[in-house]
Write a structure and sequence with these properties.
The complex is a heterodimer of chains A (270) and B (265). With 270 residues, chain A is mainly α. In chain A, 80% of the residues lie in helices and 0% in strands. Chain A has 11 helices and no strands. In chain A, helix 4 packs across helix 11 (241-269), helix 7 (145-169) crosses helix 9 and helix 9 (186-220) runs antiparallel to helix 11 (241-269). Chain B has 265 residues and is an alpha/beta fold. In chain B, helix 5 packs across helix 6. Classes of the chains: A mainly alpha (270), B alpha/beta (265). The structure holds adenosine-5'-triphosphate (ATP) and magnesium ion.
């Protein structure tokens, strides 16, 4: 070995290592899992070739979308309700997220070692999907928009609680120590140092939460939690495909408009 | 003058009624670690300006924090403003001590996204009704005016509306001084207040500190790695070495040789 290659062995980052039997087995197992899954649940070629014409047929029956004024008015009202669910749910959710995130933020929390309890609560809210929350709330408070709003609140706390807490954990510690040294309470440190520091990131997160809420409030109606989704379900259940087409178009437009608005707000505030 | 009164320590100890801070055999270790402070006896009189020097890791910052109960002390006792405590002060005592203290850190510790004025108003936090001091816009008019005056005193009236992250290091440090002054403290503790500043700004800030403290009769304790600062802007220099007080002299009596010895192993 020349001196140069000896130095290279010593200093250069390593090459791809040869596989150990264990790693080789793991890779084969993972590949098998993917292949078996595809075989079991993804559409086979014949299913696809059967399905495509039926899909085309369905789209054909959707045309033209229903533009009857009475129906359009009903859709508009339902859309308004959807929006209200999203806005009310996000607003309440963001406000509730603030104290919960504070309690859950490590190194900032006034709850001491019990911060993990609030972290766990936020995780619970986040990991259970919104449709399941909606089913629970429909059972608890009955069909309608209230169950939808409660779902969005829980969903928003799961989302904002996590990111607010992370922002607070990463916030600038020096001013917080400086205020602590002169006897400021934890509460005034929250409002005096932490919130001003994390405000841009919180606004960003809240806008994403709103976007997310509009998207989920659209489907909540499928399980009876109010909004435009309810109308969509009725349309499909009664085979009124032209109504369904109108509703799907309306949803498409509303989500697009919402994303555009939040993008603009973000650009303005950023 | 009596020979036993030769050191500043003896001088302060001779007038116990004027003592603002006293430590008795103060020991401090973090967790189960070794002792950082190993029996510090110290007395500081009201109105004195004291410089604390010592090598990196000699425990200067630790000592400052112990004086106001920011860290629990391991053994011995501290009394600040006549409030004596061992371990940690009780919540009520802690609040009473910190209410009368202004703290200035090496890196100003300003809230970056707030205006200079809001940052100065925040000096009132910890005082009764302090919650309204979180922002200048909701602070009582009187506090707001006092904050502006403090900014004026440090020569930054025109920067009152500037955000803290748009100030230069020297300006930010002066805002931090204004924040400490606005609460009309009896004691200002400054941990390397000039360390992040260029030589000219450093002298400016230290001179300002000294003048304002003298004018208002505020007791000043600061640490510094700059021996010129330590001697020129204090009445008294205390050197820490190996967890103990290595010397404690009037500033005018401190000779270069003595300083070098502090930093030698
Ligand atoms: N919060 C802490 N937890 C554990 N150890 C600490 C902590 N703060 C300081 N120490 C240790 O205590 C010793 C003294 O630190 P201190 O910051 O008081 O020194 P210093 O004299 O201020 O040093 P410098 O001149 O670098 O500021 C160091 O060994 C440091 O590692
Ligand atoms: Mg230090």
């Amino acid at each position: 070995m020349t001196e140069a290659s000896a130095r290279m062995v010593k200093y250069a980052p390593g090459r791809m290592p040869s596989l150990s039997p264990f790693h080789f087995t793991m890779i084969v197992a993972a590949a098998a899992l993917v292949l078996v899954s595809i075989g079991n649940v993804s559409p086979s070629l014949e299913r696809l070739s059967d399905g495509l014409p039926r899909m085309a047929n369905l789209v054909g029956r959707m045309m033209p979308p229903n533009t009857d004024p009475d129906f359009l008015w009903r859709v508009t009202l339902r859309l308004a309700e959807t929006f209200q669910i999203a806005i009310a749910g996000t607003a309440i959710g963001v406000i509730l997220s603030l104290p919960i995130a504070w309690l859950a933020a490590r190194g900032v929390t006034p709850a001491g070692v019990f911060y993990w309890f609030f972290k766990a609560l936020i995780s619970l809210f986040r990991t259970i999907p919104d449709l399941i929350w909606a089913l629970l709330f429909v059972s608890a408070v009955g069909l309608g928009a209230v169950a939808g709003t409660m779902t969005i609140i829980v969903d928003t706390i799961g989302f904002c609680g996590r990111f607010f807490a992370e922002a607070m954990e990463d916030s600038d510690k020096e001013p917080q120590e400086a205020l602590e040294a002169i006897g400021a309470s934890r509460f005034s440190i929250l409002f005096g140092a932490i919130i001003p520091d994390v405000m841009p990131s919180m606004i960003n997160t809240a806008l994403f939460a709103l976007e997310k809420a509009v998207r989920s409030s659209v489907v909540l109606g499928l399980v009876g939690a109010g909004g435009i989704g309810q109308e969509l379900k009725v349309a499909f259940d009664l085979f009124q495909y032209q109504n369904a087409a109108t509703i799907i178009l309306a949803i498409f437009i509303i989500v697009l408009v919402m994303e555009h608005i939040t993008d603009r707000l973000r650009a303005k505030l950023g | 003058m009596n020979a036993t009164l030769d050191t500043a320590a003896a001088f302060a100890a001779a007038e116990p009624e004027k003592n603002l801070i006293v430590t008795e055999a103060l020991k401090k270790a973090y967790g189960y670690g070794q002792l950082i402070l190993d029996g510090v006896d110290l007395a500081v009189n009201e109105g004195e300006a004291v410089a604390l020097i010592g090598a990196n890791g000699s425990g200067k910052s630790t000592l400052l924090k112990c004086l106001i109960g920011l860290h629990p002390i391991t053994a011995g006792a501290v009394s600040t403003f006549g409030i004596r405590f061992e371990g940690t002060p009780k919540t009520r005592e802690k609040a009473k001590i910190r209410r009368q203290v202004g703290f200035v850190f090496q890196n100003h510790g300003l809230v970056r996204r707030l205006s200079a004025l809001s940052n100065v108003v925040q000096g009132r936090l910890g005082q009764p009704g302090g919650l309204r001091a979180v922002h200048q816009a909701i602070a009582p008019a009187e506090w707001r005016e006092a904050a502006f005056q403090a900014l004026d005193e440090v020569g930054l009236a025109d920067k009152a509306g500037a955000r803290a992250d748009q100030l230069s290091g020297g300006q930010a440090q002066r805002v931090a001084i204004a924040r400490a002054l606005t609460r009309r403290p009896r004691l200002i503790i400054a941990d390397e207040p000039a360390a992040s500043l260029d030589p000219a700004a450093g002298h400016e800030v230290m001179a300002l500190f000294r003048r304002l403290a003298k004018e208002s009769g505020i007791t000043l304790i600061f640490t510094s790695h700059d021996m010129e600062h330590a001697r020129d802007y204090s009445d008294r220099v205390i050197a820490l070495k190996n967890g103990c007080i290595h010397f404690d002299r009037r500033s005018k009596d401190v000779r270069d040789g003595a300083l070098e010895e502090v930093f030698r192993d």
